[in-house]
Fold this protein.
Amino acid sequence: MSKRGFSLTLAALAIVALAASGARAATCTATGFQRDSINLTAAVIVTGAADTLGQTINATGCNIGIFYGPGSSGTVDSNEVYGANYFGVLVAGDNDELPGSGAASVDVTNNNIHDISESPLNGDQHGVGIYYPPWHSAAARPGRSLATP
């Protein structure tokens, strides 16, 4: 086998290995959730009732790995989430940024959420693994009163 043929074979094997790993960078979609005057994007957006189970989510290039929007519900379990620069998992129910949209009810358990930060590191204070915004409306938090921030 010639050097060129060997190089082509190695390149083809590398492409097949990457495709088989399922760890491709995500397509990022705007969420409507704002931070730092940015409409944050997410690799996975859930708007209804759905579970996110056992997935590898490479959110490189996105601000959020998994976004559960207002009115959504489900379970996030046994996933690997990495590469986002703001949040690994964000559950945004009825809140000041997305008002009147309905509460979100999401359980987040047994996940490997890592490398949520700016890359390369640049001094910005981003990078939260799991985030439930604290300003959910009283309707989204039965039996609890809200303090004005």
DSSP finds one helix and eleven strands in the chain.
